[in-house]
């Protein structure tokens, strides 16, 4: 890919989702819609040859991807592509397609689409996870072959082998998980907000990102030089040499600032008036622990276990999960690790569960709702967690709790599994704390009721804000309503912290708001005990808290909670603290 030149530099504004500066060539991630039309053909021999050519092209492409995946991601991930290759060579699938072309004199696209649909339906209706996965394989492979038949380019991020900035309409969390940090220097998307999961992952992977731009796909061609400024939420397309120089300087300044914060890596987090709070990190994989320790995290405040279930074709086994949890607990060397049970749904899909599409996935069958129904899956996770508990300081929390009854059900399943394991003679840690996420307004309002039953709360503001203001966290059109400092949110947060303290329990926050520099003084004043954030935000937050006095802020809390608008809160905090 060569760098293309254009005369004009364009600046596109979006939401800075992950700090840092990236300068590299654009790589567009295309995911076009494939439209299949039925056509009659006269030369069926040529049509079959067209099908065969598309099959061959797909095979050689898959071979390359498989090798690349093996080198970069390991044998596990490479196996997915091996399964795809097998589908392409399966006469049970391919012969009926050829028969259809010859017998009905129809075009290859149509024959392939029709035959594949029959197989997909048959496999999907089987009551067997393995067979259901075959449906997903056939769907993926069919798409690839159809794209070749239609002459459409479908880009593949795992094929990237030079430094790029990814340009995409959207990135799913599993797309993000597959990005190779060595080559992907930054990314920018049309849709998404600061708290969409791809943005959260970008922060933990330290990949600068700007999301919600609405127009990068429209404006940026493949190969153009692009600067992603995740600090100020800007994308600069085709910058002049001077601009590149200025951004290189900005990147160096940011690095210097980070080096300054890094001096606090082994310090406790103490305010100017000697009040200690815990600064913990949010992680998605055991590999993320390295970043937590390098950034001086005092614990893991949220381990999003769902990433263990993603980017694969089947549920992780109890043994696999046990190994991951044990690894995290051991690497954290006795520091607290709050593991959240599976929170799938919303923008985090598991295709192999084959759940029907929903009108409102964020309000639908997700997280604890799904776990209480799909209990085998839930129990497997709980067993793995309980077994791992002796390797460190484990705390377990349940996501998306809306009612006290849900918490009781989840906890009693946990206790049942604990008893079973103990009967089997398995060692389990004493006194594992069991808490919940407060991310649904009903649980914040009823925090006093929950506080009697839980060991701790962790406030999930990413969801709490979207549900309180009824503003989809993924939708940049309503991002103006996504207001962390809205008095409604601040009042709910206060209710949760006060309710916890009244019962002698602790309250943390693992939503992105916990690492937000405007929110931090308010949260300190409200008495939040634990702040859990992207590891890369910890040192900056520690530096900020060292200059704040909790007692001084407490005097203003009533006034802040009586302010009518976000703007008032922001300008007050900026001026006062
Ligand atoms: C939250 O909702 O604030 C949270 C931490 O959970 P997630 O972002 O994974 O939904
Ligand atoms: Mg949430």
Short summary:
The chain has 577 residues and is α/β, with parallel strands linked by helices. An eight-stranded mixed beta sheet has the order 1-8-7-3-4-5-6-2. It is built from 22 helices and 16 strands.
Can you tag this structure with a few keywords?
single chain, 577 residues, alpha/beta, Glucose Oxidase, domain 1, Enzyme I, Chain A, domain 2, TIM Barrel, 8-stranded parallel beta barrel, 16 strands, disordered N terminus, binds phosphoenolpyruvate, binds magnesium ion
Detailed description of the structure:
It catalyses: L-histidyl-[protein] + phosphoenolpyruvate = N(pros)-phospho-L-histidyl-[protein] + pyruvate. It is an enzyme of class 2 (transferase). With 577 residues, this protein is of the alpha/beta class. The protein folds into 3 domains: 10-30 and 156-249, Phosphohistidine domain (Glucose Oxidase, domain 1, 3-Layer(bba) Sandwich), CATH 3.50.30; 44-150, Orthogonal Bundle (Enzyme I, Chain A, domain 2), CATH 1.10.274.10; 271-576, TIM Barrel (Alpha-Beta Barrel), CATH 3.20.20. It is 47% helix and 14% strand. It is built from 22 helices and 16 strands. The chain has helices at 44-73, 75-88, 91-104, 108-124, 129-150, 173-178, 197-204, 216-219, 241-262, 289-294, 318-331, 367-373, 375-388, 404-423, 441-445, 447-451, 461-468, 487-502, 519-526, 538-546, 550-561, 566-576, and strands at residues 10-13, 15-18, 21-29, 164-168, 184-189, 209-211, 225-229, 234-237, 278-283, 300-304, 336-340, 393-398, 433-438, 456-459, 506-509, 530-534. An 8-stranded mixed beta sheet has the order 1-8-7-3-4-5-6-2. α2 (75-88) packs across α5, α11 (318-331) runs parallel beside α13 and α13 (375-388) crosses α14 (404-423). The longest helix has 30 residues, at 44-73. Residues 1-6 have low confidence and may be disordered. The structure holds phosphoenolpyruvate and magnesium ion. Magnesium ion binds next to α17.
């Amino acid at each position: 890919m060569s760098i293309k030149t254009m005369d004009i530099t364009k600046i596109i504004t979006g939401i800075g989702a992950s700090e840092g500066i990236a300068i590299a060539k654009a790589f567009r991630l295309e995911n076009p819609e494939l439209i299949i039309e039925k056509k009659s053909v006269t030369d069926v021999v040529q049509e079959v040859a067209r099908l065969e050519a598309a099959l061959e092209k797909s095979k050689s492409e898959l071979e390359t991807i498989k090798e690349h995946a093996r080198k970069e991601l390991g044998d596990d991930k490479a196996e997915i592509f091996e399964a795809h290759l097998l589908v392409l060579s399966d006469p049970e699938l391919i012969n009926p397609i050829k028969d259809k072309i010859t017998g009905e004199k129809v075009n290859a696209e149509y024959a392939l689409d029709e035959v594949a649909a029959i197989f997909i339906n048959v496999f999907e209706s089987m009551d067997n996870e393995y067979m259901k996965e075959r449906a997903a394989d056939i769907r993926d492979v069919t798409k690839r072959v159809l794209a070749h038949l239609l002459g459409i380019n479908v880009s593949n991020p795992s094929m990237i082998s030079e430094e790029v900035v990814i340009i995409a309409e959207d990135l799913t969390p599993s797309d993000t998980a597959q990005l190779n940090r060595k080559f992907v220097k930054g990314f920018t998307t049309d849709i998404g907000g600061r708290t969409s999961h791809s943005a959260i992952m970008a922060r933990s992977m330290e990949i600068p990102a700007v999301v919600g731009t609405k127009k990068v796909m429209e404006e940026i061609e493949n190969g153009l030089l692009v600067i992603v400024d995740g600090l100020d939420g800007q994308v600069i397309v085709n910058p002049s040499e001077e601009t590149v120089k200025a951004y290189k300087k900005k990147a160096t300044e940011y690095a210097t600032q980070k080096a300054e914060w890094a001096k606090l890596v082994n310090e406790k987090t103490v305010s100017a008036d000697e009040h200690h709070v815990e600064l913990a990190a949010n992680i998605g994989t055991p590999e993320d622990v390295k970043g937590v320790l390098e950034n001086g995290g005092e614990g893991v405040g949220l381990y999003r276990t769902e990433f263990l279930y993603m980017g694969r074709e089947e549920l992780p086994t109890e043994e696999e999960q046990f190994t991951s949890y044990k690894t995290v607990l051991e690497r954290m060397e006795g520091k607290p690790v709050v593991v959240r049970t599976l929170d799938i749904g919303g923008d985090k899909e598991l295709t192999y569960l084959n759940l029907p599409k929903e009108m409102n996935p964020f309000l639908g069958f997700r997280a604890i709702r799904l776990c209480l129904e799909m209990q085998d899956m839930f129990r497997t996770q709980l067993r793995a967690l309980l077994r791992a508990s002796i390797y460190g300081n484990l705390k377990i929390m349940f996501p998306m709790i809306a009612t006290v009854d849900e918490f009781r059900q989840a906890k009693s399943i946990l206790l049942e599994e604990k008893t079973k394991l103990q009967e089997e003679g398995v060692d389990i840690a004493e006194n594992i704390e069991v808490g919940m996420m407060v991310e649904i307004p009903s649980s914040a309002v009823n925090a006093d009721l929950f506080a009697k039953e839980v060991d701790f709360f962790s406030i999930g503001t990413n969801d709490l804000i979207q549900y309180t203001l009824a503003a989809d966290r993924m939708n940049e059109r309503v991002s103006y309503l996504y207001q962390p400092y809205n008095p409604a949110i601040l009042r709910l947060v206060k209710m949760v912290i006060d309710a916890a303290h009244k019962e002698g329990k602790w309250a943390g926050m693992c939503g992105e708001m916990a690492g937000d520099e405007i929110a931090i003084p308010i949260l300190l004043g409200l008495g939040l005990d634990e702040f859990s954030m992207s590891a890369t935000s910890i040192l900056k937050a520690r530096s900020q808290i060292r200059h704040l006095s909790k007692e001084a802020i407490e005097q203003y809390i009533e006034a802040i909670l009586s302010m009518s608008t976000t703007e008032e809160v922001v300008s007050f905090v900026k001026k006062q603290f």
